[in-house]
Amino acid sequence: MAEPNVVQQDAVDPEIKPLLYPCNTLSYDAPVRWLRLGWQDLKRAPRQSLAYGAGLVLFGYLITWLAWEDGNTVALFSLTVAFILMGPVLAFGLYSISRQLEQGRKPKLGMCWVESRDHLRNEALFALVMLVVLLIWARAASMVHIFFPAGELDLQGWLQFLLVGSAIGAFFAAIVFAASVVSLPMMLDRGTDAVTGGLTSVNAVLNNKGVMLLWAMMIVGLVLLGFATAYIGLAVVLPVIGHASWHAYKETVR
Asked: Which terminal residue of the chain has fewer beta carbons within 10 Å of its beta carbon, N or C?
């Protein structure tokens, strides 16, 4: 396999644990390469990857059913967005599968739990921070309803409502993406704490804005494609994205 087209910065003394790790400068073909490598990982460990993906799909059906039974369509939308934003935490086992493949081991789902348990403190702290962001987002989303057009059909009102809601959602999604794009795989691989992982992730995004924006758009597109199949396609889409995220971390952070 050809070496990724990256420009490396100065080397870091392995004995020093920095507050954040330096990143490489990525080329615009990197996201496509990550997806290709993610697909290869799925083909090398189809049983483990698809089983994990099926579990995430069942979890998606569960939260959808809970919101539907409550008759709250707004809650359904909020839970769906929360499910997407918490994706990096939920995909921790997929990073483990890719790591086991990289190390030449036969992937085992049980090992995913063992490795996740070993980093439970950092995972829990990161998940807590994401939860706080989601709660703030939920409060902001509820305030957007003041723009909801009431009465007769008002095209301008609907456009205003959609634009404001999309802008607020994009703002919080950008925060979550920037903090998590490489942080969770990094915690698994290097045993770093949540703060170091988050800062390194933000640094990687700031130094590769265009590439990371493209990567985020590809993730959103694939997830929406999975939703369009009544979640069934997510059983394949989510494992591919999870494995690809591992390769994104490996290529981005030194």
From this structure: N
Residue 254 class from Cβ within 10 Å (0-12 exposed, 13-18 middle, 19+ buried)?
middle
Provide DSSP, 147-210: GS--SS--HHHHHHHHHHHHHHHHHHHHHHHHHHTTHHHHHHHH---HHHHHHHHHHHHHHTHH
Give φ, ψ of 72 to 5 degrees.
-110, 95
φ, ψ at 23 (rounded to 5°): -125, 165
Residue by residue, DSSP assigns 1-26 as: -PPP--B------TT---SS--BPBP
Looking at per-residue pLDDT, the higher value among 111 and 198 belongs to: 198
CA distances from 203 to 17, 177, 197, 199 (A): 16, 12, 10, 6
Contact between 95 and 188 under an 8 Å Cβ cutoff? The reply is: yes
Domain residue ranges in the chain: 30-252
Residue 109: in which H helix or E strand, if any?
Answer: helix 109-118
How do residues 154-190 score in pLDDT, each as one tens digit?
Answer: 666 667 666 766 677 778 778 888 988 999 899 888 8
Q: Which comes out higher in pLDDT, residue 183 or 125? A: 183
List the end-to-end C-alpha distance of the chain, in Å, as a whole number: 19
Q: What is the pLDDT of residues 55-102, one digit of tens each?
A: 888 888 887 787 676 665 555 566 666 666 677 778 888 999 999 999
Cβ–Cβ < 8 Å for 103, 172: no
Asked which of 19-23, 75-79, 113-117, 162-166 is least confident by mean pLDDT, the reply is 75-79
CB burial string 121-138: b at 16+ within 10 A, e below: ebbebbbebbeebbeebb
